[in-house]
């Protein structure tokens, strides 16, 4: 789609180190007919008498004002505008060849500088206008992380989410770096309990360090032993079946996964472990099993939303899924999730009964029967095979 464009657009980064603007950036600001930016940047830097448009929550409205300006525009942004900044929106709106960019020191770089540690091995994630779950998952998987928070996801919300996901055992140091480069700058060291229990400035970068690189990075193994999950009387998707299910799910890096009829949530937990960018929901109608599912997620240090309820009612308020595992609930549950599946999505379901599996195959298109025999030692030291009940795995997009 073609959009009108002004004579020139300059995107100027305002450094978090408090340094003055680079001469070229200062010249772009001085020559602008319209200045766009956060209220604090406009108040500090916009030339007197210049027309301004504040950027609050609606970036699209600010870009509309830029498009309608025939003259020269200067867009002020924090740090490097291309680093979780407004530059992405400007490029999508006007094209990559219609403006000039003057980056400055980012708040993340300034935060690590204040703390005095290198950050070339750090994971950086934003919770500004993005799901908090993604930031939590990324932080759990990294021994060193920086999280850009926001008024909607302030530092204390991040702390509570990390504690709920079991991060207390891995990230022992927390620095909250607020209003960097401003007179009210503050850098406070605390721990996750302190992060969750206090009220912090939303204009902050939260730096998490002290994680164990081995403990916090998931291995590539899947189909973990059944004993790695708390379960009731063997009521858990068996490890070998779980390995097949996870393979058929073809987990994406981002998106939403439902585990319906989750039981102990072994599939949900492994999916969250293998794909930290997924938002994972485990739906279970039994209250005791739902509590067990939450304990398993906490033990494996992964964020899983446990929903106590049965399909389809419990699915009503969940975001539409990209992947679904149906481990319980029968064909009614399968039909309920298919009605919500996003385009290109995949459903995997398991059944003990052949008639249900055949009906599911008619909806999805693929079926395999898994028959297992596990080795068991006899009292005399010999080894025998003990057959497990066969399980039918059905998968595919909706036909």
By DSSP, the count of extended strands is 19
Percent of residues in beta strands? 25-35%
Poorly predicted runs are: 213-217
- Relevant CATH superfamily of the largest domain: Vaccinia Virus protein VP39
Shape: elongated
The total domain count is 3
Strand order of the largest sheet: 13-12-11-14-15-19-16
Question: What is the name of the CATH class of the largest domain?
Answer: Alpha Beta
Give the distance, in angstroms, between the N- and C-terminal Cα atoms: 34 Å
Give a quick set of tags describing it:
399 residues; single chain; 14 helices; 25% strand; 3 domains; Methyltransferase, Cobalt-precorrin-4 Transmethylase, Domain 2; 5-stranded parallel β-sheet; elongated; Rossmann fold; alpha/beta
What features would you describe in this structure?
This protein has 399 residues and is of the alpha/beta class. The protein has three domains: 8-105, 3-Layer(aba) Sandwich (Cobalt-precorrin-4 Transmethylase, domain 1), CATH 3.40.1010.10; 108-212, Tetrapyrrole methylase, C-terminal domain (Methyltransferase, Cobalt-precorrin-4 Transmethylase, Domain 2, 2-Layer Sandwich), CATH 3.30.950.10; 226-396, Vaccinia Virus protein VP39 (Rossmann fold, 3-Layer(aba) Sandwich). It is built from 14 helices and 19 strands. It has helices at 23-30, 39-45, 59-68, 87-94, 107-115, 132-140, 155-164, 192-197, 213-216, 239-249, 266-274, 287-299, 330-338, 354-364; strands at residues 8-14, 34-37, 51-54, 72-78, 99-102, 123-126, 145-148, 173-178, 186-190, 204-209, 255-260, 278-284, 304-308, 323-326, 346-351, 366-370, 373-377, 383-387, 391-396. Strand 12, helix 12 and strand 13 form a beta-alpha-beta unit. Helix 3 crosses helix 4. The longest helix is centred in the last third of the chain and has 13 residues, at 287-299. The protein is elongated, with a radius of gyration of 26 Å. Mean pLDDT is 86; it is low at 213-217.
């Amino acid at each position: 789609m073609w959009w009108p464009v002004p004579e020139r657009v300059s995107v100027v980064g305002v450094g978090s180190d408090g340094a003055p603007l680079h001469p070229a950036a200062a010249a772009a600001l001085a020559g602008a007919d319209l200045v766009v930016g956060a209220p604090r940047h406009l108040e500090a830097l916009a030339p007197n008498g210049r027309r301004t448009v504040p950027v609050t929550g609606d970036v699209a409205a600010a870009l509309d004002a830029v498009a309608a300006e025939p003259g020269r525009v200067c867009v002020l942004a924090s740090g490097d505008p291309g680093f979780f900044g407004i530059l992405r929106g400007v490029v999508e709106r006007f094209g990559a060849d219609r403006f000039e960019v003057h980056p400055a020191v980012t708040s993340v770089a300034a935060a690590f500088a204040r703390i005095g540690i290198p950050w070339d091995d750090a994971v950086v994630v934003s919770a500004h206008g993005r799901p908090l779950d993604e930031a939590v998952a990324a932080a759990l998987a990294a021994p060193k992380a920086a999280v850009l928070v926001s008024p909607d996801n302030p530092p204390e919300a991040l702390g509570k989410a990390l504690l709920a996901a079991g991060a207390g055992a891995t990230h022992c140091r927390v620095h909250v770096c607020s209003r960097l480069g401003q007179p009210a700058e503050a850098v406070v060291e605390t721990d996750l309990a302190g992060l969750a229990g206090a009220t912090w400035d939303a204009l902050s970068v939260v730096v998490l360090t002290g994680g164990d690189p081995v403990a916090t990075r998931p291995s590539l193994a899947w189909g973990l032993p059944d004993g790695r999950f708390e379960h009731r009387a063997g009521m858990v998707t068996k490890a070998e079946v779980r390995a097949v299910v996870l393979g058929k799910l073809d987990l994406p890096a981002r998106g939403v996964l439902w585990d319906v009829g989750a039981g102990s949530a072994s599939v949900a937990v492994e999916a969250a472990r293998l794909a930290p960018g997924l938002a994972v929901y485990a739906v279970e109608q039994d209250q005791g099993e739902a509590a067990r599912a939450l304990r398993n997620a906490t033990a494996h240090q992964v964020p899983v939303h446990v929903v106590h309820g049965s399909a389809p009612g419990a699915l009503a308020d969940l975001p539409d899924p990209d992947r679904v595992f149906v481990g319980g609930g029968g064909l009614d549950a399968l039909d309920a999730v298919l009605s919500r599946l996003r385009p290109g999505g995949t459903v995997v379901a398991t059944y003990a009964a052949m008639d249900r599996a055949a009906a599911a195959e008619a909806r999805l298109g693929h079926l395999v029967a898994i028959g297992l025999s596990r080795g068991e030692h006899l009292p005399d030291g010999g080894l025998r095979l003990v057959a497990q009940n066969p399980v039918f795995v059905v998968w595919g997009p909706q036909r």
